């Protein structure tokens, strides 16, 4: 289905492990018509957790991407890991979206990664949406107060649970019905007051003539400004398990979440170090191409897959693109969009699109793809990744596999910006560094499962 940049929504689902991000991702794909039925973590048939290691742990260990076409909009969803050990891919995804949807478990409330993701998205200038999942149970009334006390009064419900958590009632567009707690009319008034006060002319019009006198565009533009400036963090309620609120969440994405021209502009720089200066990328399909690679997948069938977000220009099949300040372009022989592990060939990618190219060895994580030397030395403002805190020394279990190990480690470091490898000459050890014991255990398991390299490990020598 053809669509414009204004019709695109890019949303990353983040949050603590176990809050139900993957189940919500699956429910949305089903309700949105992308899949005939919602996948199940227990059955191991989800779109997002397709890696054998993810099925083993029953948790996301990497990001997964899929899209929904609904009501003229093209909605790109990114499911991310909840484990802190795998926050590298999660933070990378936040660099590619306008909206960060922080999912909260109604039963557990605010958890460690809830706080981290709220703070990170705010610092990065990404619009935020709070999604309370598992509303069939849990104390949603108390959770609203907890969210507001922790993250500020700008957190306001845009709908509320009703009928014992079996459905939700709208508090913004058509505020009617009875919620399980609180007043729908009061919730509506609070969110409208919050929206109109961001813009002086809208506020004056509202005070003079009331809400009914505001045009749809006035209210919409003020809402987007609130999201950009962090003046409003909407709270919505769902149950991925029962489907309550899922269709309403999709409607909210279409009507209210920012498109690529409405979110905060990407933070591109030209040059390095202290000499780097901000540059503007405009979501204009007719301009030079600027795209940033935020994910690398080493696929056993397709080969190296480089996933990027287009910020400016149009990438078409057979186009010639440069990588960073490289002098020799590569040809876009095939252009893909992703649906979990599936790669669907497309003819072009416009500003706001998330797409991928295959088998281009020189492309790396955070590379900028462009079609003119005018954009040489462009790069996004570096992401603030956590320090690697855990290390192991490894060696091959069988002699003669050292080269195979080196190639496999290179591929793993390409995929995860928080996984690094070092050869320590003084002790003649190969060290792997990561964010925790689980992080490195999964990487060692992948060496064996993906690349057939078995290693032994021990603590590094002092």
Written account of the structure:
Residues 6-261 form the Tr-type G domain. GO terms for molecular function: GTP binding; GTPase activity; guanosine tetraphosphate binding. Keywords: GTP-binding, Nucleotide-binding, Protein biosynthesis. By secondary structure, the protein is of the alpha+beta class. It folds into three domains: 5-255, P-loop containing nucleotide triphosphate hydrolases (Rossmann fold); 268-380, Elongation Factor Tu (Ef-tu), domain 3; 390-458, 2-Layer Sandwich (Alpha-Beta Plaits). The protein is built from eleven helices and 26 strands. Helix 1 packs across helix 9 (246-255). The N and C termini lie far apart (59 Å).
